[in-house]
Specification:
With 241 residues, the chain is an alpha/beta fold. The protein has one domain: Rossmann fold, CATH 3.40.50.150.
């Protein structure tokens, strides 16, 4: 795993490697009584989930540098079993990371993992993004937003962009087929929310053993207070579709 990470321009410290290993062991044990991932064998999780999270590190680092911060605020929407948000919290100890999921069994796992790994830089929320995005404590306060397995790009854009500061970055992780289907829709939706697609980054297929890309959406203007709408409305009438 350390060798693959280096091919993604990430050199894991001994401390980080130890925490990642402990996390994988905790997930395997927890998954025996609470289904979080389909297969929790550490080698499977490392390849299918951990590397996907590590593949964001270079983009995240560039965003911190652009914002002139050693580590800013990051929110991971629909954190689930902690990918990519909890992994990024391990790798960026100076960042203030919020892990958010609406399902309590998932946030309970995340809270246990945060305590086990002694991650002082993490807050876990059990709530819905369309709700907290209207709360002054969270609205337009984050530098980066991630959402790995929440839904289509145009839906994620409406949930995430209202929580980003102007100049903030939404990172969308997509498969090859999703990239073809969703890039245009994401671009149209982002316009309603003050965002614009800056670039699409192709990731190393040999390292990940699958085709993956990142759609990078930069927030250039403040988001109208009417967004995000209720989840039912977002799903029934996606922006830009």
């Amino acid at each position: 795993m350390a060798e693959r990470a280096e091919k993604l321009s990430v050199k894991l410290s001994e401390r980080q490697s130890d925490k990642l290993g402990r996390f994988l062991g905790h997930l395997e044990t927890y998954n025996q009584h609470t289904n979080l991932v389909s297969n929790a064998a550490p080698k499977v999780v490392a390849l299918d989930h951990l590397l996907d999270s590590i593949s964001l590190v270079e983009v995240v680092s560039n965003q911190w540098q652009k914002r002139k911060k050693g580590g800013g605020r990051l929110i991971d929407i629909g954190s689930g079993a902690g990918f990519p948000g909890l992994i990024l919290a391990i790798l960026f100890e100076d960042a203030d990371v919020t892990l958010m999921d609406s399902i309590e069994k998932k946030t309970r796992f995340l809270e246990e993992a945060v305590d086990l790994l002694e991650l002082d830089n993490v807050t876990v929320l059990t709530d819905r993004a369309e709700s907290i995005a209207h709360h002054p404590q969270y609205r337009e306060t984050f530098d980066i937003a991630t959402a790995r397995a929440v839904g289509a790009s145009e839906l994620i854009a409406e949930l995430a962009l209202p929580m980003l500061t102007v100049g903030g970055l939404l990172i969308l992780q997509k498969t090859e087929s999703q990239l073809v289907d969703e890039t245009h829709k994401a671009r149209k939706a982002a316009k309603f929310l003050g965002g614009v697609i800056g670039s699409v980054v192709g990731l190393d297929e040999k390292v990940l053993e699958k085709a993956r890309s990142l759609i990078l959406v930069t927030k250039e203007e403040h988001t109208s207070d009417k967004y995000p709408r209720a989840w039912k409305k977002i799903k029934e009438s996606p922006l830009g579709v």
